[in-house]
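[recover] target loaded
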């Protein structure tokens, strides 16, 4: 899933200072290399997790549900990691602390982070709910398309060409929304629930492919054009900017991102990631699978944000499973799945922070 994240350098600096302070206060009982133990997927040494002592994960019930969905939907993935999942079950049942994984045959390996000292980049993503119609109306006139068949020869059209009707009349329209920006954010998030507002259940529109043209961040473009301050950039800020803009003005911005995403309707479907396993909010992450293989369990120290996206020093520990990937998720970077709808979307738009993370392995 493609993700769009542009937020304040202030939070990055604040988070970095926070971790440096913790290290100084703890006395750093060993050397700086301790924060570099999980740089490339190799696991040379266990982490002495006692400095500072982490609190117990607050999302144990969500984690248990997430693993149960893996077992139900993907037995092969569950079997591959069964020894880890069962050991963590024992750790949970014995009410052990985060410094006692060894008692169930596991170790916690700290990720090096983007700076080599444990600061892992944390962003967020969600699943929008978009109002739509089956057929176009005066209000609901912006088409959502399915992937063109392979019988269409040559390179697929760019976003500008699609907006200009390059796919019209080919039977590819699967819904019509009343917001060009909603459609675009749906593309950025990679999926959405569609509400046809006719009393029928929501329909999940999953990622169905893309046109193969290059992706450009409209958030970056808006900052460069002076439309939104860099420190205030978020998905919510982009939506607010778009509210009073004409269709022409919106298209002038959006066509600068030539990439276009297509969708596939799925009835009675849950949100799924790259592992084809339903995602549980706050218990799953998208990661770089070359570093964190699909199905891995990670312990993540997450900064908490208020309703305005502000960080006030509060944090919580979450036990999470890597079940998704993303084109922008490379290296020591986790994209936290935060749930469905506007509230989750607003929070996801704010996240561009740093936290610590540990890979749980034998």
């Amino acid at each position: 899933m493609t993700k769009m994240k542009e937020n304040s350098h202030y939070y990055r600096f604040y988070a970095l200072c926070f971790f440096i302070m913790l290290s100084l206060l703890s006395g750093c009982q060993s050397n700086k290399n301790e924060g570099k133990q999980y740089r490339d997927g190799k696991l040379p040494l266990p982490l002495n997790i006692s400095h500072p002592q982490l609190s117990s994960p607050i999302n144990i019930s969500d984690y248990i549900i997430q693993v149960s969905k893996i077992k139900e939907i993907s037995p092969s993935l569950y079997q591959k990691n069964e020894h880890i999942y069962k050991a963590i079950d024992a750790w949970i049942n014995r009410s052990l602390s985060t410094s006692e994984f060894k008692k169930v045959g596991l170790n916690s390996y700290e990720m090096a982070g983007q700076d080599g000292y444990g600061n892992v980049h944390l962003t967020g993503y969600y699943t929008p709910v978009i109002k739509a119609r089956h057929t176009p109306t005066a209000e609901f006139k912006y088409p959502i398309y399915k992937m063109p068949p392979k019988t269409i020869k040559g390179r697929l059209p760019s976003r500008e060409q699609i907006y200009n009707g390059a796919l019209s009349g080919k039977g590819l329209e699967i819904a019509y929304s009343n917001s060009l920006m909603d459609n675009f954010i749906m593309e950025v998030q990679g999926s959405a629930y569609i509400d046809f507002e006719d009393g029928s259940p929501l329909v999940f529109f999953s990622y169905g492919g893309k046109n193969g043209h290059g992706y450009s961040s409209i958030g970056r473009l808006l900052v460069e054009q002076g439309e939104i301050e860099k420190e205030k950039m978020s998905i919510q800020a982009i939506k607010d900017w778009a509210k009073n803009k004409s269709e022409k003005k919106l298209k002038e911005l959006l066509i600068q991102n030539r990439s276009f995403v297509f969708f596939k309707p799925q009835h009675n479907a849950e949100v799924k990631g790259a592992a084809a396993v339903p995602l549980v909010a706050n218990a799953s992450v998208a990661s770089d699978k070359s570093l964190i293989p699909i199905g891995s369990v990670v312990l993540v120290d997450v900064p908490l944000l208020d309703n305005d996206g502000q960080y006030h020093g509060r944090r919580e520990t979450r036990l999470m499973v890597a079940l998704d990937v993303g084109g922008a998720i490379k290296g020591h970077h986790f994209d936290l799945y935060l749930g469905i709808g506007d509230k989750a979307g607003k929070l996801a738009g704010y996240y561009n922070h740093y936290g610590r993370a540990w890979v749980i392995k034998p």
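[recover] notes: Confidence is low (pLDDT under 50) at residues 1-37, 46-52.
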